[in-house]
What we know:
CATH superfamily of the domain at 7-74 in chain B: Winged helix-like DNA-binding domain superfamily/Winged helix DNA-binding domain
Shape of chain A: rod-shaped
Helix content of chain A: 25-40%
Strand content of chain B: 5-15%
Oligomer: heterodimer
Strand order of the largest sheet of chain A: 25-26-27-33-32-31-30
Strand content of chain A: 25-35%
Order of helices and strands of chain B: HEHHEEHH
Amino acid sequence: MDITGVFLKIVNMSIAASWMIVVVILLRAACRKAPKWVPPILWGLAGLRLIVPFSLKARFSLQPSVEPVFRDMGNANMIHIGSNVKIADTPVTKAVENHTTQVVASVTQGRWSVTMILGILWLTGVVVMLGFALISYLRLKRRVAESMPLMKNVRVCDHINTPFILGIIRPMIYLPTGLDAENRAYVLSHEKAHLKRWDHVWKPLGYLLLSVYWFNPLVWAAYILLSRDIEIACDEKVIEGMALPEKKAYATALVDCSMQRRMVSACPIAFGEVSVRERVKTVLNYKKPAFWIGVVALVSCAVFGVCFLTDPGMSLSHSAGKVTSVEVADSKTGKTLTITNRKEIVRIAQYVNVMELGRKGLVLGKKSGRFAIQFQPSKGKWDSFTLESEDMLYKAPFRYTVKGGNGLFGYLERLYEKEFGRNYESMTPIGVTMMAPIANSEGVYLQFSQKGKVSGELYTGDAYTLEKSLNGVDWETVKPLKDMGSVGEAYRIKENGITQMAVNWKEQYGELEPGEYRITKQIFHQKDDKTGKGYEISAEFTITADTENVAEDIEVSLPQGYLIVPSLLDSDNEAMILPTVYQNAGGNDGPPLQWIVAGTCVRYPADFTGVTFRNGIPQLSGIPMQNHTDTKYLEVIGLERSTNQWPAIMLESTHDLYTPPQLKDLEDAGTDVEKLEKTSKYWEFWFVKEGEEQYYELTLSAKSFSKEEAIKIAKTFVIK
Amino acid sequence: MEIQLGEIESRFAEIIWEREPVTSSELVKISADEFGWARTTTHNVIRKLVAKGLIENNKGTVTSIISKEQFYSMQSKKFVEDSFEGSLPAFIAAFTKGKKLSTDEAEAIKKMIDEAKEG
Lengths: 720, 119
């Protein structure tokens, strides 16, 4: 595990234990009459909280959740706050598995996150604390080398003035020399009581915890108070069986030993270094407690343990990643809003942290698991959301309904409303936008734009759903004429760029009436770890009544993925076959659109050409030349066709996409001209017929179609 | 000339007074057997006693300069300032510095003890 992960875990645990420590401090003050062995047990339970990284779930847990906002781990992920987190079953690939959504927020600045720096600082502190202890231990050991045995497990030494126990596995009591017999007897019984209570183990353990949690002042307070409580508990143990006179003698020994007396029989400053007055009072007031008090005390400790060592169920995940976006969805309209603004996301995470669960008084606890948050707006207002998680411990899903809170809900609502004006774009958390800029009755031309980093690859398929707007508010699914079935084609959506897709629905839907429509596609995100997630994306478009464009004059059968639309130059005589297939590096100064699209269809007056016929058969000549183009006559095709299927003169044209000056400009601007496509090649078919006044040209890009394929398409060309 | 010895040092000196002249190696062996001392520990104590002028170590043979009777007659009820400085490590001690009671405070507490009754 990396430092950052460990450190954050430690911080979390420390905060959780802090509550417990505060409670122990309060209890300790409140229960002075309780047996003195109780406080150390309470400290022990608090210590347990600091040691054990997980905890059990219990309904009656009183542990409040204080989950720091900042967590920092692994790979990218997001919070889904959507009423329908839609998983697409795209025809593209196998089923979407494993949709992991985890909540995390983190603060990172480049490679060196704040958390990492703090983690290193923490580790340094731990090393210092432990080193300190080690050095002290070694020095002490050396100091007491000059000691002599008094009895079993007890030695005396000149060079110490406080008794103590050294060693955990084989503890040895060290007494200072110079104690008079009576005092020594009491000191010894006190130290032996320590041994019986295993304090020589708890103390170092407590110090170990202190070393790890050194940054938490409450832990220091706990350690100091623990030490005191241990001493008092020992006193109690010593005087347990004593009658008053003997107790007085012990108390006197305590006092004697706390005065600085410079004698050969020098006494230790205190055998325990705790307020003497307090200890004397404890000793004098000691009464053997009734049996039932002990029972009550034990039970109370157990209850306390359960209340604070357990967590109230659900919590936020600690696993991978940093939140990159939050998705809010409205189940009514189906619109989703993706929030990518860093500040907003952190704010949302804060809200989710301290959300109150439906069960009264409980708040989200701490746990690791995977979950998705879904909103359930009712009556059009956000008022609750469901938290669903896969519990790592119990391996079962569990859900909590969260109610209320103007905070998060109001905030999200505001964000949502701010965003959703008449915005017809929809964006997914993978940074993809889809637009439908061109549409007609036969199809729509889509553009996917992807921005921002995403791991893995994005795909979309051939499938889509079409909806038509009924009255500006409701949408009705358009019923296909026939079921196209699942087509297995997957198209890669480019990262950081534009991907085109022409959808031709003539076969599936026929020609659609003008109106407002919405197309929904599925995008599949295949991540690097081979898990996948599906998204739905929609775009709205308008089909207008058909124009006088040449495209209406003719009919041609284009394969899937190609759509013929009126030329953007708004010419009646020109149509284009989308998508574009050659790249345009020149922008507005680049090659003409006709030279980079998948094809064109243009209507010319017959006398624009010089085509001649012999016996009705067109001759391989007379086609007007173009600038920057190299043309080759190939053959005449389609002679065998019937009346409205004209024959065509087939040519092969290669266009220069850039003039030399243009190339130079591009190179100066930093474009790698070597990599540019400098020419585009087309199969051109001039459909001509003797006696006709208009001729039709169909061009098909050689990049998209082989010669045979082009001829095949040309042979479906029909002049209506 | 006054020599202060702690209890441990006194006991060690006793061995020397009893068995002198004795070699340091023998002292090492005796100390190891009786107190479990390491060689370095024994040598340290010998050095300290030499420095205090109690004994002398002549090429590995240890003899006393001041006899036992002389030493004990020199002792008065003087107060030994101990060589121990600094407090115990935190994992052993309670961390809080025990306040040394003033005489007044001590008297007050003792009074409290005296007046304490049963029950």
